[in-house]
Amino acid sequence: MATTRKWVILIPVIIGIAGLIVLKKNSLPPVQEERQEQATLVRVIEVPQLTVIPKATGHGTVRPSRTWDAVAEIKGKIAQKHPRLQKGAILESGTLILKIDPADYELAIAQAEADIQATRAQLDELQAKAVNTQASLKIEQAALVLNQKELERKRQLVGKGGISRSDLESQERSLLSQKQSVQGQINTLNLFPSQKALLEAQLARHNATLATAQRNLAHTEIRLPFTSRIAEVNFEQDQYVREGSVLVIADDLDRAEIEVQIPINQMSNLLSSNRTIDILNLNPAETQQEIGLTAQATLQENGVIASWDARFARLSDTLDPKTRTVGVIVEVDKPYANVIPGKRPPLVKGLFVQVVIAGKPQPDSLVIPRAALHENRLYVVNKEQRLEIRTVQPIMQQAEYVTINKALKPGEQVIVSDLIPAVEGMLLKPVPDPASQDQLVNAATGGPAL
Predict the structure, then answer these.
(1) Residue 221: which residues within 8 A CB-CB, separation 6 or more?
(2) N or C: which end of the chain has fewer CB within 10 A?
């Protein structure tokens, strides 16, 4: 019985093994198919040749181009204050904003005028004395001539015994006395020039005192030199102010300026000229035309978007050694013009705005997206639809694009999508990316952002 059971178990196993052997002998060998290369899908653009407008962007705070401090040049009590003279008020050019009590300075003018009149009277008196003394001198000189003749006559008579010696001596004393009178008149005339010079000096001093008093009187009235917005008022009606006190600070409304910090490498892309510029003798208009920079200031805040045309004014005086940036100052004319409440505010002091500075157009530039450049290498699709890694030399780098040398030709396809791994000669399936193409063209030519 045990033997029979063993055979029952082994028979199925033997049959299975025999079947496997038969199937193996009758099976056909596997068919091997040739392996096909898989093309990688990539987005591409055609390299355009454009007239590029280089730009640089910065942010800065608006400030007035001119600020005027009304400094008291005299002392006194504030006698008059403009009723609208308050912080934030806008007043026209020439407006009388305050007046210092002029009484003391009017009295000083009256005193100086009186001193001038008195000195002029003394000069007139001196002139009259000179004329009178000159006439008296002529009379005394005539009398001297007569005395000399009389002395000669008596000398002749003394020899003949006609007169006594005492009469002759008396005549000689009379002649000496007359000479003394003539000399006194001459001495008086000799003093007139110095007396006149003294009086003329006094007159000049009184005239200077009068001019100072008149100048001080003019300084009692303070007027705005230009249309201004009042930034600060530091006095009140009837307050006594001292000389040198800053009474009012006013900002010019005719022009605003903004200083922005631009990286040095970006400024080198913007500033280009074909001639040497003499910095010490710059003509602002000619320099601006030669450099060819334009600018635009834009405010974007709380849903409000407003723009103002600006112009390059000057470079700042220093270079920031930490950020390696240079300060660029742009100006905006009429910052308070064309105001639309709720939509277009005035360009007031303290606004934080974006400034875009554009340089001269650079024609015939080959342009690629900055993201397509991989350490001076480009991924190019060649005519066989394969990857070609090409080394290029960037000429100008901007935030969104790069201009390159002639290592590419216009119309060649450059890969703008990520390609990992990038193997030279790999098969590609390029797909045009019109959105990236349009965005590149607009960024390079200064068109609207897409």
Answers:
(1) 96, 98, 99, 100
(2) N
Domains of the chain: 42-51+364-445 (2.40.420.20), 55-63+254-358 (2.40.30.170), 70-102+220-252 (2.40.50.100), 104-217 (1.10.287)
DSSP one-letter string for 349-382: TT-EEEEEEE---EEEEEEEEGGG-SSSEEEEE-
Q: What is the pTM of this model?
A: 0.69
CA–CA separation, 127 and 120 (whole Å): 10
pLDDT tens per residue, range 45-102:
999 999 898 888 899 999 999 999 999 999 999 999 999 999 999 999 999 999 999 9
pLDDT digits (tens, 9 = 90+) for 99-118: 999 999 999 999 999 999 99
- Asked if 238 and 77 count as a contact pair (C-beta separation under 8 A), the reply is yes
What SS3 class is residue 213?
helix
- Tens digits of residue pLDDT in 424-437: 889 999 999 999 99
pLDDT at 160: 67
